[in-house]
Amino acid sequence: MEVKEQIERLRKELDRHNYNYYVLNAPEISDQEFDKMMRELQELEAAHPEYDDPDSPTKRVVSDLNQEFVQVTHRYPMLSLSNTYNKQEVADFYERVRSGLEGEPFEICCEMKYDGLSISLTYEHGRLLRAVTRGDGVRGDDVTENVKTIRCIPLRLSGTGYPDEFEIRGEILMPWTSFEKLNKEREEREEPLFANPRNAASGTLKSKSSSVVAQRKLDAYLYYLLGDQIPFDGHYENLQAARGWDFKISQGMKKVTTLEDIYDFIDYWDDERKNLPVATDGIVLKVNSLRQQRALGYTAKSPRWAIAYKFQAERACTRLNAVTFQVGRTGAVTPVANMNPVQLAGTVVRRATLHNADVMEQLDLHLGDMVYVEKGGEIIPKIVGVDTAARGPQTGPKAEFITHCPECGAELVRYEGEAAWYCPNETYCPPQIKGRIEHYISRRAMNFDSLGPETVDDYYNRGLIRDVADLYDIQVLQINGEDGTREKSARKIVRSIADSVQVPFERVVFALGIRFVGEIAAKTLARHYKSMDALASASLNDLLQINGIGEVIAESVIRYFHNETNVELIRRLREKGVRMQLSEEELEAHSDRLAGQSIVVSGVFTLHSRDEYKTMIEQHGGKNVGSISSKTSFVLAGSNMGPSKLEKAKKLNIPILSEEDFLKRIVR
Ligand code: IVH
pTM surpassing 0.70? Predict the structure, then answer.
């Protein structure tokens, strides 16, 4: 077979499997087979850049290009829908439509209201041309590159009958499972959590890095087709046709005629939506005929032919018994409402977060109050109000925020600009100690895979550990259970602790749990200073010179190494053999020889792969950029570099380095 044909066949096949997997949820082949096919195509494409296609399925696996979003004016403004909150308001809408259409029969299309962020996709000749966010309704951000990584959005359409040029709108969502996974990872890395999948989807789509978008597994449902040559008069029929072109269209769509049918649809989905993989916050009702839609027209803000019915956030009323206070690993104190158990959105709720002292103050909570608890798009229930009418002589005193740490008694402090109160006793406050140990052993830090938080709690309570260095002194005999039955797992634990001396220096820096020093900052510091001694003796000024290290991190590092307990801890860890500097190999592989340089990698290479070159650039302090500009320091060019890139580099006088030249530059 001709190479060109082979490439085309693979692209078609991969598009089909993508569709099966992401739209139909019915894969025909295993992930491994899929990956194999994808690699085959990647290799062929790399060897034959002349058959390049921007819509190839390989383009969904994207690089880390930095993009600035360009603003685009919508061809048709993106309006919003007016909201209704009860059946009477729905009935009013139905009546307005009936009288607006002067007695003509009409159909209403009922569908889910997805709670994500809206997107407008433009297709020309069956190809995705552009993806733009809603923005202010008139202009939005061009997020095409990011949207291309969303697997269920077709880059090329299947089937027949689609207009040459059209727009399709829908909602981009983060499925609940991806959302929970993402937040769990963020928690481990001590990054702020997303409150709900909508915020997470929005943060993701606006990310400057398409590879972040690709990793986070977004989903998209399409619900509105626009253009001059739309195939049918019926909205419902158009969407069914769009399903045939590979778009993901909600299964929960129904055409009805009576108000009773609309109510049935609402009642059914109010409950059934809990089983959907993505967040929904209501129902949308649309007059089905486009001709009738035009006849009804628009108000300044929204169509007269459609309306949203919003589900009630599930709410319950129960008695507040006490407010307790939780001390987190960082010392932040969170107030928690303890209530009489109450059924809410499928689970029994006993506790709800009160967030912080300000929120508590605003609610003016009294013990014994009847409080309203809601579970909205957020997973953690929250108290949204107090039934003040239910107060009486039996109502207790006002719930006050505490002044001292409930765990260690230290006086709490509040840092400027922060909502939370903190326990400042980092060294001796038990949850902070246990939290630091849990962080030290976590997967991304020292990765003691056989130890978990419960075990840490147990060892702490038994007095076996007071800090992370104590872990290295644990003996099998101490932890194998009284009758020795758990000897096997005890040996495993002791071995995994001993093995941790292999963990690279940058992860050791992260594992220390220096406040505000996440994985990336730890990596930056480790590579810059190369040893713990150098890091410990860095001055504030030194630290502030480093790219990516701001004031907050720098000050926290200084504070950490000024604390005698920490210095002593590091001394003991060093004694146990924990890595306190970059290894010889790492020293070899890392330098700052490319510091401050922006480098474009282009073409096909023979000595190393493209990705290896990109990693090398980063390891030597350089930055990978996607396209050539006057700011580019040089181009690392393999064979077959695209002619337009070559021309641009020449025009801007950007040096072009071969593989050999580049390697010479980075070896000592
Ligand atoms: S139709 C002119 N259908 O709700 C009508 N919108 O307040 C265009 N939404 O911005 C919108 N699910 O982001 C439509 N099935 C659905 C929807 C839906 C969610 C969102 C959309 C829009 C907002 C309207």
Answer: no
